[in-house]
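User: I'll paste a sequence; please echo it back and then give the predicted structure.

Assistant: Echoing your sequence first, then the prediction.
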Amino acid sequence: MVRLPSALALVVALAGGVAGSAQRMPVDSRAARDAAPLAFRIDEGRNINAFVREGQTAAHLLLRSGDVPRILSAFPAGNSAVGMWFDTIDRPATWTLDTPPTPSSMIDAKGRPLHAVQATASIDAPVLRFRQAVLSSIRVLRDYEALGTAPAEVLTQGRYNPDLRGGPGMIWARDRLDGAAGYILSVRGLDGTIVDKESIRAGKGGRIRIAIVAGSGEMPLTPLGGDALLTAAARTDPRARNALSYLSYREKFLAGSWRFDTYFGRDTLMSLRLLMPVLQPAAVEDGIGAVLARLAANGEVAHEEDIGEFAVLRNAKEGRGRIATPVYDYAMVDDDFMLAPVARAWLLEAPRGRARAAAFLAMPAGNGLRQGDLIARNFAWVVDRTAAFAKQPGYKALVAIKAGRLTGQWRDSEEGLGRGRYAYDVNAVWVPAALAAIERFAASGLLDRYGTSEERAALRKAGAQAQTWQRAAPPLFAMTVPNAQASADIAAYARKVGVPSAPALGALGAAPLAFNALSLDDAGKPVPVVHSDDGFALLFGTPSAGDLDRSVDAMMRPFPAGLMTDIGLLVANPAFTPADVQARFGATAYHGTVVWSWQQAILAAGLDRQLARGDLPPATRRRLVSARARLWRAIDAAGEVRTSELWSWAYANGRYTVAPFGASTADADESNAAQLWSTVFLALRPPK
């Protein structure tokens, strides 16, 4: 062991236990059973992603190749991370992970544990010059990657150590801003590689090889995995199983790594709904409980949480001082209406959940409340929020995204809704589904003992409001483009993006093009982007045969008439919009003409649900069966990338191919290698 000088000193043991390791927080016996060691790797685009979870250490080491190399290690604990960005180099270079990350026991000078990993890596570059180390919240590192800036108070200077565990190296380390245990990143040269204060230089072999140590002092989460997470009914997909296990904890499910290693309400609820058939009951209830624990006082569902050092920064900025009290974000509007349909699916419809419903609702939730009280709170808020439209239908009474924002539902990049104010999915799907679910709960009597008398009275109004929303909201988004105009738009857009138009035009035929608008603008005018959100209607609604035919045709036509390509279902098609809108929805846009894995899963599950109905005419059933087969061919064509967050495409030699999102410097962002709602295919099976 080597004790490093200063108050930030760290004791590092590179093998086995060390003095002080007994100071680790105890893990209960159930957690120990759930937490078999986990180690796996996903290579995608320019990124090597190596994951490890063992005991109280969970980390995702990322090595970014190319002409702007990067080392980053993200930790679910506190949504924290450490990273090193290097200056641009003359030619692209490629990392090799020589030794995968393994847990390393560490304590700081104050005797506090740091949960760390160590690894060795090499890169075919003669020199890497340090540009900036950032040790903080993942939120800070995300902003630095996107914008090149970080709060000055989190930046720290590296310290050169001529004898860092046997050789010269650099260390970046500091306490968290509130004085809690902080972060460390160190690099040491191997095989003649020279590390100095400014750079890393290759030895005689011309290749850089380094030892990396990365650690965080944030509070570990309680791992959830193995038989405690999934039932025997789950598919045997190792990549999806590993990704889901890494993102699953008793306290919460994480949205994705490396960029979203924390709670997101929408991601949790949608993943629970899709994975529900193969999750263990306690895991489903852990996820629902995480959502309920973060409800606002008025019943809104939290979209995201500021925890760890990001909470310290937020609290200080807002005058509460440097404290780590979590701050919850309620800016989104779709997730508020998702809780009721998901709760219905588990507590009323799933036999396993129904058998446990009374016990779950009676569970203490803190502050003298029970889980049932919190559910009643959200349900009453939903009924109150949607009453105006039920009284006087019209676009102005729809649920708008919140004032001053361009985002409010899952397409949460600023251009994702085409600058609309009223999202199709929120108003045509989620609100009616939520009200219908609340009506079912009210009729069941399960909530008769929960909430206030006013809240229980509100629940009894849900049925009448649901009928109005189901009748009056969807038609506001219905669009029809005359055949001649649609054909011209398809041909022009196909030329612009370099794909064939013949399959799309053939699928359209001589009929007008009918689809649901992505959103409505401030004046109630539809934004004419074809989109994948009709999949929500199939999974959570009971559309008429005519509406099903229309929605399925709109999505399943070949791009750019619809959304289908050989490598997946695109989430948006702007062919029928002006040129400036088309430019904002391209294949490099986060919510543009790209494939999101979970949207395909939503549609696949929705098609299954509709085919289980007994009231559809034969022609509609044939259409659904054909759509399901085509969708699954595209899902299978994407291969292992289907567990990623999203991917783009290229078209050459007469075919579409997968292009990892984030691999191009033109891409708006980079994809998570492990994404919660991309693991949901564990619960879905292709048609026989």
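The longest helix spans residues 424-444. The CA atoms of residues 27 and 222 lie 8 Å apart.
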